[in-house]
């Protein structure tokens, strides 16, 4: 597995604010890094580094067959995490 220590130059980041079932407001900050090849070969798969503060203990690689596919998969991954909160989306801020 690929180990990623930092996301130096994020390509996208933002904050979702949701409300827990008990009414508590929760902010979920996410950061996407630049997609990279898994291996330095022309037919290599790609990964997009993702961090979801407060939900993931570390930066994780989300894989795809191309750079665009890895970004799409990363966005779907973050959306899945947010949906697991089962709260209502109150505010979305993109940086």
Describe it.
The protein has 95 residues and is α+β, with helices and mostly antiparallel strands. The protein has one domain (12-94): Double Stranded RNA Binding Domain. It has one helix and six strands; from the N terminus they run E-E-E-E-E-H-E. It has one helix at 67-84, and strands at residues 12-19, 25-32, 36-37, 46-52, 60-64, 88-94. Strands 1, 2, 3, 4, 5 and 6 form a six-stranded antiparallel sheet that branches. The longest helix has 18 residues, at 67-84. The radius of gyration is 14 Å and the shape is elongated.
Q: What are its keywords?
A:
6 strands; 1 helix; 19% helix; Double Stranded RNA Binding Domain; single chain; alpha+beta; 39% strand; 6-stranded antiparallel β-sheet; 95 residues
Give the second-level CATH assignment, the architecture. Answer: 2-Layer Sandwich
Shape: elongated
Task: Enumerate the spans where pLDDT stays under 50 for 5 or more consecutive residues.
Answer: none
Largest sheet: 6 strands, antiparallel
Total count of helical runs of at least 4 residues: 1
Helix content: 10-25%
State which percent range the strand residues make up. Answer: 35-45%
Mean pLDDT: 86
Looking at CATH, which topology would you report?
Double Stranded RNA Binding Domain
Distance between the termini: 29 Å
């Amino acid at each position: 597995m690929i180990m990623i220590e930092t996301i130096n130059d994020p390509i996208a980041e933002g904050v979702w604010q949701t409300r827990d079932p008990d009414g508590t407001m929760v902010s979920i900050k996410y950061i996407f890094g630049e997609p990279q090849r898994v291996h330095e070969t022309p037919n290599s798969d790609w990964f997009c580094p993702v961090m979801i503060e407060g939900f993931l203990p570390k930066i994780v690689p989300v894989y795809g067959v191309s750079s665009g596919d890895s970004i799409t998969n990363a966005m779907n991954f973050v959306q899945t995490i947010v949906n697991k909160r089962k709260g209502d989306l109150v505010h979305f801020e993109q940086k």
